[in-house]
Design a protein that fits this description.
Blueprint: H1 3-33, H2 40-67, H3 72-103, H4 111-148, H5 154-174, H6 183-205
Helix pairs in contact: 1-2, 1-6, 2-3, 3-4, 4-5, 5-6
């Protein structure tokens, strides 16, 4: 396996890892955010989100070596966007752990107000991170893949269709039109989920297509 194929496999595997960690983490932490006590589910959710943050950053960093040969601006923008997403996920993790500590100390004065504030911090971090930035990622990564033809065109097209839908859903949540976790938000996120799964699976199994790279970027 040559280095280009190895990079594709790493990017694809990490993309699939973000896909399979984000959904279980959301399910595991939901009852805790709704007011349940501290349990094993919280710590499993935290572990999954730590892996999610690392995989988010890893996809862009691993791809940069290939992406910069085709469009260095989009490749670097993808690294920055993924980094911000990873930071937002980690901010949510810190809010979850702080909330767990607070709920284990019931005698603290004003604990209810802090509880509400930490839940709000997590929810806003979730909106900016996994709720909004995957659309930015799709615009950057999808555009680069579409122009370079490193994968079949239909794959990035799905991402580029899903990106504005997810952006509209996130803006709707910001203005109180829909909830972050709702059937409408889930429907708006489906094309992005399909894009992330398909690009991850393709790169892992098939790798990048052979293309003529810009000579001045070699």
């Amino acid at each position: 396996m040559n280095s280009r194929r190895k990079i594709a496999a790493i990017v694809g595997g990490l993309y699939l890892l973000t896909f399979v960690t984000s959904i279980p983490a959301l399910v595991l932490k939901r009852s805790f955010l709704d007011g349940a006590g501290v349990g094993a589910e919280l710590y499993w959710a935290v572990l999954l989100e730590l892996v999610l943050a690392a995989a988010c950053l890893g996809t862009a960093v691993a791809f940069y070596a290939v992406g910069r040969r085709h469009n260095p601006v989009l490749a670097l923008g993808f690294v920055v966007s993924r980094t911000v997403e990873a930071v937002a996920v980690l901010l949510g993790v810190i809010a979850l752990l702080s909330l767990g500590t607070l709920r284990g100390t019931h005698h603290l004065e004003g604990a209810r107000a802090v509880d509400v504030a930490l839940v709000a911090l997590h929810d806003w971090a979730f909106l900016v991170g996994p709720g909004l930035l995957p659309a930015v990622n799709a615009l950057l990564f999808g555009t680069l893949l579409l122009r370079s033809r490193l994968v079949p065109r239909i794959i990035p097209i799905v991402g580029l269709i899903g990106a504005p839908l997810l952006l509209c859903s996130a803006v709707g949540t910001l203005f109180g039109v829909n909830d972050q976790v709702s059937p409408l938000a889930g429907l708006a996120a489906l094309p992005i989920a399909l894009w992330e799964f398909s690009v991850g699976a393709w790169l892992l199994l098939r790798g990048f297509a052979e293309t003529k790279e810009a000579p001045e970027l070699r």
